[in-house]
Design goal:
This protein is of the alpha+beta class. The chain has two domains: 35 residues; 156 residues, no CATH class. The protein contains four helices and six strands; from the N terminus they run H-E-H-E-E-E-H-E-H-E. The structure holds iron/sulfur cluster (SF4) (3 copies). The site of one iron/sulfur cluster (SF4) has 14 residues, from helix 3. The site of one iron/sulfur cluster (SF4) has 14 residues, from helix 4.
């Protein structure tokens, strides 16, 4: 067999192999999709509401308006392991509103009043900065508008609140309507992660 022929055969085998591998990968993806192991999810590193450096701009509300479910399947979720439990939380208060008699902003940020604020431990009346609060999002009220997410990041917040597609609310559309309109391609299909069903008891008591 000449060198030219053996090279052609080798190339042909390689092409056949990569096509079969590609078909195998696609088949495996479809099986995982059918089994509910592949789901739509928001990539916080791409979403403009979470991305560091995206400040001084309006929150992107497309996760609310584009979802085919009437109250979007996307909700804001507070990761309590990252939350600073701040006295003046920029995701809870509208920090541009007038200060009230308690020395706090007089307006809340959330348009659906979906966030509650509860003191942790005993109050220190001498030093408000020494008082800590738990901020719990009521996911039955939240529609994933992202306004609190935009505020809960540097320089004022710690980035503990992000948007998540809640699997038990999502219809798992073949092509997610939000992903089609997302300006940052931040809604993608990923392996399902445990613990992202709605759990209202995640917070500490
Ligand atoms: S549409 Fe995209 S950028 Fe806008 S809030 Fe949703 S994930 Fe973020
Ligand atoms: S995402 Fe919007 S509706 Fe949900 S808690 Fe945050 S501000 Fe409220
Ligand atoms: S897959 Fe469908 S139901 Fe789920 S978040 Fe996207 S548009 Fe909403």
């Amino acid at each position: 067999m000449s060198d030219a022929v053996s090279r052609r055969e080798l190339l042909s085998k390689l092409v056949r192999g990569s096509v079969l591998a590609g078909m195998g990968g696609a088949a495996l993806f479809l099986v995982k999709k059918a089994n509910g192991e592949i789901v739509w999810q928001v990539d916080a590193s791409r979403c403009v509401n979470s991305r560091l450096g995206e400040v001084g701009v309006e929150a992107c509300t497309l996760c609310t308006s584009e979802c085919v479910v009437s109250l979007s399947a996307v909700r804001a979720v507070n990761d309590f392991s990252k939350c600073g439990r701040c006295n003046v939380c920029p995701a809870y208060f509208d920090i541009t509103s007038a200060v009230n008699e308690l020395g706090l902003p007089s307006q809340k940020l959330c348009p659906r009043d979906a966030i509650t604020r509860k003191m942790i431990g005993a109050a220190d009346p001498e030093d408000p900065a020494n008082n800590f609060y738990e901020y719990v999002i009521d996911e039955e009220k939240c529609d994933g508008c992202g306004r609190c997410v935009m505020k809960c990041k540097a320089p004022l917040g710690l980035g503990s609140i992000t948007l998540k597609v809640r699997y038990n609310k999502c219809l798992d559309c073949n092509r997610c309507a939000i992903s089609l309109s997302c300006p940052k391609d931040a809604v993608t299909q990923v392996p399902k992660m445990a613990g992202l069903e709605i759990k209202l008891a995640e917070h500490t008591e």
